[in-house]
């Protein structure tokens, strides 16, 4: 990618000269952010950088308290930049929340972004945001709902979860696929931080697993992977469903959009293989359901791409975790051999790691 | 689960840092510095996976990185993520940035850090991978941009009114209007000299 270096070098003169034409993708050099960044890059010592940033923060502080809100978005981006370099700009937090509350779509987006970067779950100012999020979740505007769901999954105070739970739950039935998907992930986040509050909606997760849209189904797998890891016994009855889904994916039944470099939904396959390996561990009956589809996945993943190697690696791990079957074990051993001998250094590493699984398996079965 | 996504240049200057778990400001900066230290020492022909440093949670966490020209993209993940899968995810992210910014370079990412964050938010939500298809991510980002543009144009109008106008059913315009053969006599105009 040397053209990247070239592009950077050719862009610099036009950026630094004062009579440059502001192009669509480049800020004019007279913009405040441009000046700030140019200033930082010219400095050589940390001490000078500190001084410049402090001056910048002082000027932002002044402008932020003025009643003129049109500059707020730009001020917020500059504050984000300063914070990302490690300097405290806490006076700006309350304005970020206000921006998310009152602004137009663009300002709201920057406000929400600033809030998710500046604050954390236990920050006291976060309670002020809860009302805004509640309002946006009920908005008819889909983009606002999406923004609210994104913020909810990033930072949300634990105590306020009961207030927002019913609204997020109802989004599980929303006609738009992206909103259902985001709602599933938001609920998963709630499950991680406050598991006892989310117990009653497990059957809603099952509905998400059978959703007609594969995107929503994929999102629900995150939850199932976690729950099955904690308690495999409780979900053995779902083994058949997971095997079916994997069969359909590997057989190419998904829409063509889900193909990544002509491999059908690789990340989805990887997830399913992990789930199946937890379900089949130490359990002959369940493992027997899995053997066929495992064989099929191994066979189909024969192409020489990074991502198919990922699938092969997951298959190998699965074969060694579940109840053993001799012909699958042979194929897995051959696979590991290919990895270790491969010229690709990443594959060699994974081959070495797999040999650890192989050794553990040999030790366990010889006892 | 993805714990953090970091992007810094060859000198260790952070270009993007997104943490999906809470750390104090100082710890975040320390993590960035430590990660840069670990990653910049790596040779070009070693593998792209590293054990995470002490700060990020110890042995269960891996750093998966890719080096593109002047930028390092580092994903800090736990054992529930597939290493090669994350490598390809980084590739998807970079390709998406390339599509959204048209031949992206480091300067684009510096000046439009909020846009980069928005693209990342469509890909990874709350530490979970939300979408892996580049075209889907771009569709979502474009929808947001379109909405912002339309709101700026009709500033203050409620979103419902805007969408109502868009969905309004206009009567069908006749496509082929047949006037028939009209003999229009063209007068003989004198030519210009």
Automatic annotation (TrEMBL), chain A:
GO cellular component: endomembrane system; membrane coat
Key word Transmembrane present: no
Compartments (UniProt record): Endomembrane system
Membrane topology: Peripheral membrane protein
Keyword Signal: no
Residue ranges constituting the Clathrin/coatomer adaptor adaptin-like N-terminal domain according to the UniProt record: 49-352
Keywords: Membrane, Protein transport, Transport
UniProt cross-references to SUPFAM superfamilies, sorted A to Z: ARM repeat
GO biological process, one term: vesicle-mediated transport
Stated family: Belongs to the adaptor complexes large subunit family.
Protein name: Adaptor related protein complex 4 subunit epsilon 1
Organism: Cynoglossus semilaevis (Tongue sole)
TrEMBL record, chain B:
Predominant location category: membrane
Membrane topology value: Peripheral membrane protein
GO biological process: Golgi to vacuole transport; intracellular protein transport
Superkingdom assignment: Eukaryota
Record's keyword terms, sorted: Cytoplasmic vesicle, Golgi apparatus, Membrane, Protein transport, Transport
Cellular component, GO, one term: Golgi apparatus
Location in or out of the cell: Cytoplasmic vesicle membrane; Golgi apparatus
Sequence ranges assigned to domain AP complex mu/sigma subunit in this UniProt record: 1-147
Family: Belongs to the adaptor complexes small subunit family.
Name assigned to this protein: Adaptor related protein complex 3 subunit sigma 1
Organism encoding this protein: Cynoglossus semilaevis
């Amino acid at each position: 990618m040397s053209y990247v270096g070239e592009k950077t070098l050719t862009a610099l003169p036009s950026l630094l000269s004062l009579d440059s034409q502001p192009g669509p993708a480049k800020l004019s050099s007279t913009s405040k952010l441009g000046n700030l960044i140019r200033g930082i890059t010219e400095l050589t010592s940390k001490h000078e950088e500190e001084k410049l940033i402090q001056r910048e923060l002082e000027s932002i502080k002044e402008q932020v308290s003025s009643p003129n809100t049109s500059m707020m978005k730009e001020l917020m981006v500059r504050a984000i930049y300063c914070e990302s370099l490690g300097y405290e700009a806490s006076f700006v937090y309350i304005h970020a929340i206000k921006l998310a509350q009152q602004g137009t779509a663009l300002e709201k987006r920057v406000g929400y972004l600033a809030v998710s970067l500046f604050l954390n779950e236990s920050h006291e100012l976060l309670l002020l945001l809860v009302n805004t999020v509640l309002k946006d979740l009920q908005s008819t505007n889909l983009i606002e709902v999406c923004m609210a769901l994104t913020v909810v999954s990033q930072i949300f105070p634990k105590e306020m979860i009961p207030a927002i739970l019913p609204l997020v739950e109802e989004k599980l039935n929303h006609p738009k696929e992206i909103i259902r998907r985001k709602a599933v992930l938001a609920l998963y986040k709630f499950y991680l931080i406050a598991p006892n509050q989310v117990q009653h909606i497990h059957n809603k997760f099952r509905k998400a697993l059978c959703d007609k849209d594969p995107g929503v189904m994929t999102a629900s797998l995150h939850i199932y992977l976690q729950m099955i890891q904690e308690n495999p016994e409780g979900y053995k009855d779902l083994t058949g469903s997971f095997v079916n889904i994997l069969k359909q994916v590997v057989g190419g039944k998904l829409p063509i959009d889900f193909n990544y470099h002509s491999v059908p939904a690789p990340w989805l396959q990887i997830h399913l293989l992990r789930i199946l390996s937890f379900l089949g561990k130490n359990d002959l009956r369940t493992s027997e359901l899995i053997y066929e589809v495992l064989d099929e996945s191994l066979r189909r993943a024969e192409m020489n791409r990074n991502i198919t190697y990922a699938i092969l690696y997951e298959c190998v791990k699965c074969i060694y975790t579940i109840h053993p079957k001799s012909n699958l074990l042979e194929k897995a051993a051959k696979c590991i051999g290919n990895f270790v001998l491969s010229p690709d250094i990443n594959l060699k590493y994974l081959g070495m790691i797999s040999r650890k699984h192989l050794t553990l398996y040999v030790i366990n079965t010889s006892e | 689960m993805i714990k953090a996504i970091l992007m810094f240049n060859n000198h260790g200057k952070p270009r993007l840092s997104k943490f999906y778990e809470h750390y104090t400001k100082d710890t975040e900066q320390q993590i960035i510095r430590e990660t840069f230290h670990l990653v910049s020492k790596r040779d070009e022909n070693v593998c792209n996976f590293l054990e995470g440093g002490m700060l990020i949670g110890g042995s269960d966490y891996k750093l998966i990185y890719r080096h593109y020209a002047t930028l390092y993209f580092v994903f800090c993940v736990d054992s529930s993520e597939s290493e090669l899968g994350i490598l390809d995810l980084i590739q998807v992210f970079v390709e998406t940035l390339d599509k959204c910014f048209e031949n992206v370079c480091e300067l684009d990412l510096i000046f439009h850090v909020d846009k980069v964050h928005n693209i990342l938010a469509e890909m990874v939500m709350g530490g979970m991978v939300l979408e892996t298809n580049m075209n889907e991510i771009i569709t979502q980002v474009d929808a947001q941009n379109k909405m912002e543009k339309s709101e700026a144009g009709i500033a203050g109008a409620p979103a419902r009114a805007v969408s109502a106008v868009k969905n309004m059913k206009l009567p069908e315009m006749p496509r082929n209007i047949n006037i028939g053969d009209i003999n229009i006599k063209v007068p003989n105009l004198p030519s210009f000299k």
